[in-house]
Amino acid sequence: MRAGRKEERMENVIWRPQERQALFMQRPEDEVLYGGAAGGGKSDALVIEAARQVEIPYYKGLILRKTYPQLTELIEKSLRYYPAAFPRARYNEQKHCWTFPSGARIVFGSLQHEKDRFNYQGKAFDFIAFDELTHFSFDEYIYLKSRNRPNGPGTRVYMRSTANPGGVGHAWVKERFITAGEPMQTIWEDVVLVGPDGKSHRERMSRAFVPSTVFDNKILLENDPKYLARLASLPEKEKRALLYGDWDCYEGQFFEDFRIEPDMRAANAAGVDLPREELKKQRRWCHVIEPFAIPRDWKVYRSFDWGYHRPFSVGWWAVDYEGTVYRILEMYGCTETPNEGVKWIPPRVFQEIARAEREHPWLKGREIRGIADPAIWNAETGVSIAETASRCGVWFDKGDHQRIPGWMQLHYRLAFDENGFPRMYVFNTCKAFIRTVPTLQYDKSRPEDLDSEGEDHVADETRYFLMSRPIKPRQKDRPDRGNSGPLHLFLDISGELPRAGARPGMEILGGNSE
Questions:
Q1: Under a CB-based contact definition with an 8 Å cutoff, are residues 327 and 316 in contact?
Q2: pLDDT digit string (tens) for 386-415?
Q3: Handedness of CA 429, 430, 432, 434 (dihedral sign)
Q4: Is residue 310 part of a domain?
Q5: Is 250 part of a structural domain of the chain?
Q6: Quick one: which H or E segment has residue 162?
Q7: One domain for residues 162 and 81
Q8: Which residue among 191, 266, 441, 497 is least enclosed by CB atoms within 10 Å?
C-alpha cells in the first residue's frame, strides 16, 4: 500500500506484502480462504485487501468477526495503515466505519448470534471479509454472500476469509475450501438458474484455498524468533493445528482419536517403521480402510437417526468373527448444505432403506437387525415413525439413548492396541461419517458430552448401534493368554462364537447378539 495522492505514490511505502500474502491478494476467484495456521500474516492481508477499491466513490467493504470485541486488532491495524495511506480518511468509532475522501466506506461488523445476520438484510457490499471464518456457521456465511453485490458500476465483487482449524464452523469450512480441491487451485462450482422466461442459464462460481503458516511470515520470525518455539511447546493437537495447519486435529475436537490416515507418531512410538501406505494396507493405526466384500456369515446391523429439517442418517455395520465392527454402507439425508435435511417424509426414507437392503450385494438376502433412536416410537402426533418403518418392511429395536456411555463406547472402539489395531473400521466410501464425526466438538457447559449444535446425526446412530453391544475398554499390559490377536482379552457371547481356529471375540456387556 502506498500513499493515496498521486504525487506521493512513488514514496512512503506503508505496507508491502510478503510472498504468501501477495499470492493471496493476487487470486482472481470469487471466494478465497487464506491461512490455516497461526502467525501467517492473515489479518494484515485482510485489512489491506479491503482498501483495494476505496478510490471508487460508491465502493463499500465489510470486515466481519464473530463479536465486536474480537474486532479490536483489525481496527487497530486499520488505524495504523489507512490514515497513513489516505490522510483525509476518517474513522467513526460509534459506527465502526471508515469513510475515505472519495466517499467509499469500509465497515467493521459482527455476527454474535445467528439472527444477527438479518441486520445486514437489504444492504450491499462490494467486498466482504470474514476473519476467523471457522467461528461462523455456514448459514451466516451464505446469507452474507447474498449481500455481496455491487453498489455501482465498475467495482469488483468478491469475498475473502481467513481461518485456523477448529471452531463451530470447522466442518463446513474444511469441506468448502480444504478438501474440495488442492491448495492454490481453482475450485469451480456450476450454478444453474431459471429465468422468468423459463430458460435455464448456467453460471460458474470459483473459490480457492491459499495455505499459510508462521513459516511464511519472515517478518514475524525476525521480530520474535521464539514464536516458533512457543507454538511448538503447545499440546500436541494444538501444535498440529496452529503450527502446521492440520485440519484433522484441533483444540476442542471430541473424537480426536479417530484417524483417517495412519497415526505415524503412534506407530513410530511403538517401534514400527513402515511407510504410511503399508500401514493403511495392514489396517494399523487408522480407522478408514478400503471396502471389501463382506463374508456371508458375518452379522449385519442397521443403525438409524431420524431427521427431516436436519439430516437423517442410516449406517450399515458388519461384525467379524472377533467382534470388530465395520461401517460398510450409509445413507445420509443431507442437501449440499451441511446439516440441512433433504426433508423426505418417513415412508420415502424407509422405502429407500428397504430398496437398498433388497438390491445391494452386501445386504440382500441377509437378516439385518436394526437399532434406532427410541424417539421414533413416539406416537403422540399419530402413527409413529417406527410403525411407518415396519409397514415398509424395515424393523428396529429401541436403542439405548444414554449419551455419555454411548460416546465412551465409540472411544473404546477407536482405541488402538499395542500393534495398532482398533475394534472399529469405516469404509472410505462412508463419506458422511468421515466428514462429520471428526469435526464434532465438546459441549462448553458439559465437557464430557459433545456439542449437539454440531452435525452429530451420524455420531448419534453410531452410538445407538455400539450401545447395543457395549464392550470394555482395553486393558493395557495384560499378560498374554496364548492369543496373538488384538481382541484376546474379551469373552464370547452366544450367537457370535468364532469359527474353529479363529481368534476369540470380545465381551459384550449386556448386549444382545440376536
A1: yes
A2: 999 999 999 999 999 999 999 999 999 999
A3: negative
A4: yes
A5: no
A6: strand 158-163
A7: yes
A8: 191
